[in-house]
Specification:
heterodimer; A: mainly alpha; 2 domains; 13 helices; B: two-stranded antiparallel ribbon; 12 helices; 1% strand; globular
């Protein structure tokens, strides 16, 4: 189809929309590169000397050098960043492995209907983290004894993400031709070999979509992490909220931490927007 | 034969890890929250030590003006936000459903607000709403208008929270309705054009009715999510000023951590869960009905072909 010529007004609208969508993020980036005097000054906010001092302050204990501008180093954020990374990576890998196997069983062996799977996904999507707050706090503290540890947080995240991951992966597994698997079985492969060597490589796009969603949910989650973590296992969102309760907000540093929290999802968006849109539309438009 | 046994057991082996995790960390906690709502329980007690109080928590909530206020704020927030987002999102999709270069880049830019952590979204908007250094009040005062008390006046605070949510979630509706638009049967649009339908007529009588099934599901998904919003509001206003923006999720969090009334928080969680269950059920029944209709249409003998 040839491209129609659009009138200039249409492009004006487009530009305004893009500015509205991206503007707040750009503004945050700009603020994170400013000194507090520049943030507070009355003058135009466009002209300023960019500085990395806020990032140095946030990351000080992870840096290989001692930032000159700092009198003392607050390790809270660096520690939280490490916690967030560990928790999200482990929970993503676990969710994918467990979810993949379950999705495969549901599709190939047909012993619980796919309707059950999609209904339970819907039901789980409906449960707000706030509803899990009380029971998860009680059970994790008093029965499992894993409150305050990274394992506790990982366990909730895996459980929270599993239904969605199973659901999205099964829609990819359905498309893998059974003949391929039968051929592999003829050649003497066992069920586990068939799964890991034949099926998994074929559903890589689905795995990518599922991985991004799982990682992002853990990375951005605050409420349960806040209830389950102690001083040494706090994740980044928890430390950000904690530093906000103080009366005087250090906008430069807090915007730098916010930016660091925002960077991984933004990168995912640029590298895998197609997979993300697949995952998103799968809910409404039958995938 | 051992291989046959292994084959018979395979599905269970594949399913077992998922089943165990879901039971231990999701289904059990949800059952637990129902039980806990009948207890007078504070965070320093084990659940066995908490006293059984029957329906007292629920009765207390029904008589509690703050809870009713919070329920009202939640419903109002969800209704306002979803209506506005549906109108803007579908409108934009209709406007931008054209064959232009760089559409995929545009889509990427538009989904950024959804991908960024809600905490960060709250942070950005709190900064922009800042009474003196925020961009809104700076622009207003530099143009000679009076500064607006964005987050400190209760009506403005509610509007501020709604605006932030619209910014964050309109793209969701935009992307889904764009996908729906682009999968419409070309023949229907072509026929409308040949019959001389105007742009508006095509939109009103062809595009919107054909998109309707997807739009309804999209709306329900968004509605469910609107009840789960928490972090953005927590960072921006923490429910204040007063109770103006204290949605149920926030109130549950406060009841549990500040007032240390876990039983009451559990009862509140159940009420929220009931509302959402109704919505989800509506959505499931609707999509089942649509599927049944599609099947009936396909099964019906094709007359005119």
């Amino acid at each position: 189809m040839e491209r129609e010529r659009q009138n200039p007004l249409f492009y004006m609208v487009l530009i305004i929309l893009v500015i509205m969508a991206v503007g707040p993020i750009v503004l945050m980036l700009a603020t994170s590169l400013k000194l507090n005097v520049d943030i507070m000054s009355d003058r135009s906010s466009l002209l300023f000397m960019p500085t990395l001092r806020n990032y140095e302050a946030a990351l000080c204990d992870l840096l290989w050098y001692q930032p000159k501008s700092l009198d003392f180093c607050d390790p809270t954020f660096g520690r939280a960043l490490v916690n967030s990374l560990i928790i999200c990576l482990i929970s993503t890998v676990l969710t994918l492995v467990i979810g993949c196997m379950a999705a495969y069983a549901i599709v190939r062996f047909r012993f619980i209907g796919r309707d059950t799977a999609s209904l339970s996904t819907l039901l789980m999507r409906m449960v707000p983290p706030a509803v899990l707050l009380v029971p998860v706090f009680g059970i994790w503290t008093f029965q499992y004894g894993i409150s305050g540890t990274r394992y506790g947080i990982i366990l909730v995240y895996v459980a929270m993400n599993l239904p969605f991951v199973i659901w999205i992966l099964q829609s990819f597994i359905v498309q893998v031709p059974v003949q391929l698997e039968e051929a592999a079985r003829m050649d003497g492969a066992g069920p586990f070999q068939v799964f890991f060597l034949v099926v998994l490589p074929l559903i890589k796009p689905g795995l990518a979509a599922a991985a991004i969603f799982t990682f992002r949910i853990g990375w951005n989650e605050f409420l349960l992490a806040n209830a389950l973590s102690d001083r040494s296992t706090r994740t980044v969102p928890v430390t950000i909220v904690n530093s906000l309760t103080e009366y005087n907000i250090d906008w430069g540093v807090i915007m730098a931490t916010g930016m660091l929290l925002a960077i991984p999802p933004i990168l995912f968006t640029f590298f895998a927007s197609r997979q993300i849109i697949t995952g998103m539309t799968a809910g409404a438009v039958k995938g | 034969m051992s291989i046959a046994t292994a084959n018979r057991l395979t599905p269970y082996l594949f399913l077992a890890p998922a089943a165990i995790v879901l039971v231990v960390a999701l289904i059990y906690p949800i059952g637990y929250v129902i039980y806990a709502s009948f207890l007078d329980w504070n965070p320093s007690q084990r659940i066995g030590e908490a006293a059984y109080v029957g329906l007292k928590n629920y009765m207390k909530l029904l008589g509690d003006a703050a809870f009713r206020e919070s329920l009202w704020v939640t419903l109002k927030f969800a209704a306002v936000v979803v209506t506005a987002e549906m109108i803007i999102g579908v409108g934009l999709a209709l406007l931008l459903d054209r064959n232009i270069r760089g559409m995929s880049l545009l889509r990427t830019l538009f989904i950024l607000p959804m991908m960024v952590a809600p905490i960060v979204v709250g942070l950005m908007w709190r900064y922009m709403y800042h009474p003196t250094i925020g961009i809104f009040n700076r622009t207003l005062t530099s143009m000679g208008f009076e500064a607006v008390p964005w987050l400190s006046d209760s009506d403005w605070a509610f509007a501020a929270v709604v605006i932030a949510d619209i910014w964050q979630w309109t793209p969701f509706i935009f992307i889904l309705s764009l996908a729906a638009l682009q999968s419409l049967p070309r023949s229907a649009l072509e026929a409308a054009r040949i019959d001389g339908a105007s742009q508006w007529q095509t939109i009103l009588y062809i595009k919107l009715p054909l998109m309707l099934p997807v739009l309804i599901v999209t709306m329900l998904l968004r509605l469910i999510d609107a009840f789960k919003v928490l972090e953005v509001i927590l960072v921006m206003t923490n429910g204040g000023p007063g109770l103006a923006t204290e949605i149920l999720s926030l109130r549950i969090n406060r009841t549990a951590s500040e007032f240390r009334a876990l039983g009451e928080a559990a009862a509140m969680s159940n009420i929220l869960l009931l509302v959402l269950m109704g919505l989800t059920l509506a959505m499931f029944l609707y999509s089942k009905a649509m599927e049944a209709r599609a099947r009936a249409l396909r099964a019906a003998p094709v007359g005119e072909e």
